[in-house]
């Protein structure tokens, strides 16, 4: 009997203890030192840093090559268009969009319109990168798994995505500055809301021009340009939307710590080098170095700048012009001198620069999408060139704007505008690629030993994980858009 009583006593004790533990389960399993929410000011810097690093990485590995700013002399598959999966943009957009949704939700709940406006701008830029790389993508149902149980989002058409992007940028412009919260955690403009408004409207002009072959954008572009009080745009290089790296770890320019052998696989492209040399353009000496054989001699008068053709075979590329000692490398400011004072001012993560905006306006004026005609187009065009030189710490050389091939010529203006815009996009390979696909300026020749039947790639293939994780929606997108191949054109490019 005593044994039974003891067992019952133990059982009651255990049940009581278990009940007590169950009642305090959440309390016991909650770490009082671990945050359960993160403020927008802490989320923004990481989102922006991740995205500019992703765009720089894809520019270095693919964008600069396909747009023929750089070429490879070893491991030349990328240069011959033997592209496999290129998932950095896709992965970074969707992973960081989750955090950006938190910023949007928090700013909406707290009526923090400055944070919401910035988040809408970043959302627009990030989705533009993804859609311009891949075409139709998850958009309206993206990042709604936790909130709405949508784990297999549909792929929206690029046309509808661009409508959403432009609407979000217009809303950002209208709400920024209408509440008084101070924006912290802003590595681009340090909380300057006016500059974010300028970026919103400058991006609107970029994306309107991007789709200008598919719809009439004249009224929309004119409404922005003709009303600067309501729709301010960038007015100088001080408005450039750039992420500035630090001289010390852990936030240095991504290439600064690259193994030298990997860096040296990339050389100057003959395409860009020939244009710069033909114009006697001093930006050449920043973008590239003299050949190693001439760089190390004390006499700079014998320096030679030599680019290699894009897409040569492995042996031909390595042996071109007598070998690597006679092929120009990429400029030091984008590598070992990236943490110098000049390097920090140039080797940046670029979202958009003033020079690009001026070239957009020049094209728009020349095409009659905004007022001004050739006279205004010439002004915008020269502003773009001057701004590009100034970005690199240079003054536009005397006579540069007047020389043949550069001097504004109404009969050839679109080619001139596109060419100078292409030059100014150095190390912004993705944006340069997007813009070239729209204009075909300059007239690039496909890589010498290309593996795409003479077609320069026009998109990335979808991540292979989508075939198994989001099969039906991906199939619908491919059926609508065209084969999941790097030569299939996206909507605005058809």
From TrEMBL:
SUPFAM superfamilies: TPR-like. It comes from the Bacteria. The keyword Transmembrane helix does not apply. CDD domains: SusD. PROSITE patterns: PROKAR_LIPOPROTEIN. Residues 1-22 form the signal peptide. It comes from Thermoflexibacter ruber. This is Starch-binding associating with outer membrane. It holds the Pfam family SusD-like_2. Keywords: Signal.
């Amino acid at each position: 009997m005593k044994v039974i009583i003891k067992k019952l006593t133990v059982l009651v004790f255990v049940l009581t203890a278990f009940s007590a533990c169950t009642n305090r389960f959440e309390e016991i399993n909650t770490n009082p030192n671990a945050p359960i929410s993160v403020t927008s000011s802490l989320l923004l810097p990481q989102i922006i840093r991740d995205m500019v690093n992703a765009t720089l990485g894809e520019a270095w590995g693919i964008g600069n090559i396909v747009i023929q700013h750089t070429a490879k002399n070893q491991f030349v598959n990328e240069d011959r268009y033997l592209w496999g999966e290129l998932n950095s943009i896709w992965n970074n957009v969707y992973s960081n969009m989750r955090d950006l949704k938190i910023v949007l939700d928090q700013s909406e709940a707290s009526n923090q319109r400055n944070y919401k406006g910035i988040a809408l701008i970043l959302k627009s830029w990030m989705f533009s990168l993804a859609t311009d790389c891949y075409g139709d993508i998850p958009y309206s149902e993206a990042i709604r798994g936790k909130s709405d149980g949508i784990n297999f989002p549909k792929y929206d058409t690029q046309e509808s995505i661009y409508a959403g992007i432009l609407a979000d940028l217009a809303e950002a412009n209208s709400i920024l500055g209408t509440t008084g919260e101070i924006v912290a955690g802003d590595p681009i403009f340090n909380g300057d809301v006016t500059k974010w408004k300028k970026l919103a409207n400058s991006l609107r002009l970029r994306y309107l021009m991007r789709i200008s072959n598919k719809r009439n954008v004249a009224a929309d572009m004119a409404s922005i340009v003709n009303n600067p009080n309501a729709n301010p745009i960038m007015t100088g290089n001080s408005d450039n939307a750039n992420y500035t790296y630090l001289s010390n770890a852990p936030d240095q320019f991504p290439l600064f710590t690259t193994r030298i052998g990997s860096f040296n696989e990339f050389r100057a492209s003959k395409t860009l080098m020939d244009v710069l040399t033909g114009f006697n353009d001093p930006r050449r000496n920043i973008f590239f170095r003299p050949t190693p054989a001439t760089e190390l001699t004390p006499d700079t008068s014998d320096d030679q700048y030599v680019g290699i053709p894009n897409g040569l075979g492995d042996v031909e590329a390595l042996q071109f012009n007598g070998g690597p000692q006679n092929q120009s490398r990429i400029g030091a400011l984008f590598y070992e001198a990236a943490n110098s004072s000049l390097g920090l001012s140039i080797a940046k993560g670029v979202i958009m620069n003033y020079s690009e905006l001026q070239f957009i306006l020049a094209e728009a004026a020349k095409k009659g999408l905004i007022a001004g005609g050739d006279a205004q187009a010439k002004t915008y065009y020269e502003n773009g060139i001057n701004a590009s030189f100034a970005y690199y710490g240079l003054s536009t050389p005397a006579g540069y704007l007047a020389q043949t091939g550069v001097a504004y010529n109404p009969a050839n203006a679109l080619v001139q505008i596109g060419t100078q815009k292409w030059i100014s996009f150095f190390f912004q390979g993705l944006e340069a690629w997007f813009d070239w696909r729209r204009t075909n300026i300059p007239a690039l020749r496909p890589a010498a030993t290309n593996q795409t039947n003479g077609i320069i790639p026009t998109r990335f293939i979808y991540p292979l994980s989508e075939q198994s994780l989001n099969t039906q929606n991906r199939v619908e997108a491919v059926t609508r858009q065209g084969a999941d191949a790097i030569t299939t054109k996206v909507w605005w490019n058809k």
